Amino acid sequence: MTPHLTRENTQPARAVAGNPNNCQLMIPMFAIMSGLLLMAVFLLLAGRVEAESPPPNKYVAQRIALMSSQKKALQDLTAMTRDYIAFDRSSARAARRALIRSTRRIPRHFRRDVTDLSSHARGGIWTNWADFKRHADAAEKAAHALNIRSASGLRRSLPRLISACHNCHQIYRDTPREFTTH
Ligand code: HEC
């Protein structure tokens, strides 16, 4: 199938063919020169972009990793209450322990008022530190209160923890999404 030629893309070809000889030499030269110039501009820009977005901050990366681990533990427990996976007391106990430990670490991980482009933390954390800590404390208490003796015990005690995660996110995290925490 032959492509349909429009007037626009046939005309420049005719113009080149109709030019005198010296012009035919000038055109490739000009193409090479402008190609080199374009490359130089790209390299310059690439350097600048790198300089403007610093690598993720170490503390920010750590607090996000802490939160992600909590999400994982919570997902495992939620799956057990919904029969996606069979209730398993020893892995439920491990998840509960991990959640108690990680919720206790929240204040320590957020102590520094630092941020970077990957962060969704709100500045309010550091101006309302006592309140932020209260939210972390509520989550720790809810993790403690998890009943891992049976699937039904877990089903009854999980919502308190999930609301504790949500309550803090609603105030101190940007772009809260309904299903991030569970
Ligand atoms: C005391 C407040 C607080 C509590 C409690 C809390 N979070 Fe967070 N969470 C935050 C803040 C603030 C951020 C944003 C951190 C950032 O982006 O720098 C966050 C971010 C997250 C993220 C997103 C991480 C990412 O990839 O960007 C997940 C997932 C998360 N939290 C899960 C949980 C779960 C699950 C719980 C409950 C077990 C929980 N959080 C409890 C404050 C809290």
TrEMBL record:
Gene3D superfamilies: Cytochrome c/b562. It comes from the Bacteria. SUPFAM superfamilies: Cytochromes. The chain crosses the membrane at residues 25-46. Keywords: Membrane, Transmembrane, Transmembrane helix. This is Cytochrome c-like protein. It comes from Phaeobacter inhibens. The lineage of its organism: Bacteria, Pseudomonadati, Pseudomonadota, Alphaproteobacteria, Rhodobacterales.
